[in-house]
């Protein structure tokens, strides 16, 4: 298994509404997305969202999460979703320089014989607030995934960044 | 070039394996940078960390002689404030714990999820570690598994420095607690060709 860089948003300018990864190569086994992001809304905590293949087919996807806020834990689910939504990110009222960090894995993204399962781990710590989370998502389609759109409630704060990687199934071991 | 050193009950030092250099291209975006083979290590560190990766990943699989806490500290040989929020499962309950502000050290095991006397496995990601305008998020997963007990945890930590990270240390906090054997490896995650 080896990991290969595909594309990046680079450091986004303040207020970037969304970042799209289009024409995703169909040559890997899995995808991994690594996010360091923040929202511009006047809140401590907002969310990031993901739409797959331009939200097509729409409205039949589902999600679960397990979340901790430093004192309590919560878990919930949602069905009939057109987008994956909810992972927590810091926003404009959070402490300066704090960004949320997530690692998102998309397994067998180009397999046309099964629906697609996503998993994200991450969160943000604001030195007294914040959340750590495990999120899962079902893209309830057998379509190969060729595009991903990431966005937040209001817009990405300047310096937010999203990197897309491909994971091969070749026999070279990374040790990780 | 020595990029790591170890402090252990039997003092030793190490250098980057030349074989790792040879594998840089073959292994794509995830590149081994340095490794530490434990030999009763109370502390071990990664220094002169290359600044040409997007993220860092540290994989630790260590056999601990005692139940103990593992911390990351001495970031850039300084004392930035650290904090964390964690999610912990012990086989019976799920809890969440927070450390609001801690000077100089970021625990990667918590009071509710300490290292066990046995095998403890960590995968720790430091994202955007070369950025000079943001604090550094540290995302860690940890498992301590024994028959009938043990814990697993997911933690997001924050190191309140905007300086690119060039050095950090891991410590089992005192000389009575150490990794008798096992391995820690530092990887760089490249973004770009």
Structure notes:
The complex is a heterodimer of chains A (176) and B (193). Chain A has strands at 3-8, 16-21, 30-37, 45-52, 61-68, 73-81, 84-90, 100-106, 116-125, 130-139, 148-156, 161-167. Chain A is an all-beta fold and 176 residues long. Chain B is mainly β and 193 residues long. Helices cover 3% and strands 53% of the residues of chain B. The chains are: A mainly beta (176), B mainly beta (193). At the A-B interface, strand 1, strand 5, strand 8, strand 9 and strand 10 of A face strand 5, strand 7, strand 8, strand 10 and strand 11 of B.
Please give the structural blueprint.
The complex is a heterodimer of chains A (176) and B (193).
Chain A lengths: L2 E6 L7 E6 L8 E8 L7 E8 L8 E8 L4 E9 L2 E7 L9 E7 L9 E10 L4 E10 L8 E9 L4 E7 L9
Antiparallel strand pairs in A: 1-12, 2-11, 3-8, 3-12, 4-7, 4-11, 5-6, 5-10, 8-9, 9-10
Chain B lengths: L3 E5 L3 E3 L3 H6 L6 E8 L3 E6 L8 E10 L6 E3 L7 E9 L4 E10 L1 E3 L11 E9 L8 E11 L2 E11 L8 E4 L7 E11 L4
Antiparallel strand pairs in B: 1-2, 1-4, 3-14, 4-13, 5-10, 5-14, 6-9, 6-13, 7-8, 7-12, 10-11, 11-12
